[in-house]
Fold this sequence. Notes:
alpha+beta; 4 strands
Amino acid sequence: xxxxxxxxxxxxxxxxxxxxxxxxxxxxxxxxxxxxxxxxxxxxxxxxxxxxxxxxxxxxxxxxxxxxxxxxxxxxxxxxxxxxxxxxxxxxxxxxxxxxxxxxxxxxxxxxxxxxxxxxxxxxxxxxxxxxxxxxxxxxxxxxxxxxxxxxxxx
Length: 155
């Protein structure tokens, strides 16, 4: 069957259906959607303003109505993403990889050729906390942790 799919130009890509439980939770969250989006946007603005003086590429405002993540890429030291994640976690900040290079997935390998931006974000990008329950003092703490990591030479 896989050989037939390949001859037709198809490839396996996984099952992305939503469960009934997931759908029920989503419907319940819809009542809070505007407040969630407003809170995320406010926290993203605080992060953008609080980190402006650091040598970081900051996630740009892109006009979308909802900010799902807030990413940064350290400037000046190649490969500093993992070290920055470790430094932030040591300070109690839940940071992680910003993205994954999906072209590395077996089901997508070779589908579109090289993806240098995706590769760079996967190697160096850092996702900072951004959710509706964050308070302004939480984003200030994230900014302070990044300033401390920079002062210590993490990047």
